[in-house]
Design goal:
Elements lengths: L1 E4 L14 E8 L2 E12 L6 E9 L4 E9 L11 H11 L29
Antiparallel strand pairs: 1-2, 2-3, 3-4, 4-5
């Protein structure tokens, strides 16, 4: 897989837009490309909302979505509710569309990188 800074237009020309990344990966031979952007985050980084749009061109699939991330996987504290809802609106996602995922049944969560991060 690859991850690199990108522009909001999704093209390779022009300066990258802060907070926008292009991910490309292969899943069972199907190559997908996704454009991810940071929509909102708490000043203390206790939560962040990411919006993504992608395509598996040869499979004829396109998709969009959002991911609300927190360090421990729990929903943000109630004091952040208005900011999270505003970020969801900006991404075109309703709060009720988000689904919680708990990894409490998994050992070793959160997963740490298995190798050093390489910067281009």
């Amino acid at each position: 897989y690859s991850c690199r800074p990108a522009s909001l237009g999704g093209g390779t020309r022009g300066a990258p837009t802060p907070g926008v990344y292009e991910l490309a990966f292969s899943d069972s031979g199907v190559v997908s490309r996704e454009l991810w952007r940071v929509v909102g985050a708490a000043d203390d980084l206790s939560w962040a909302l990411f919006y993504y749009s992608g395509a598996a061109v040869h499979a004829g699939q396109t998709y969009v979505g959002a991911m609300l991330a927190t360090p421990d996987g729990a929903w943000p504290a109630p004091r952040h509710a208005a900011a999270v809802e505003a970020a969801c609106r900006e991404a075109g996602v309703e709060l009720w569309e988000l689904d919680g995922v708990r990894n409490t049944c998994c050992d070793g969560v959160p997963v740490r990188p298995t190798r050093a991060v390489r910067y281009a």
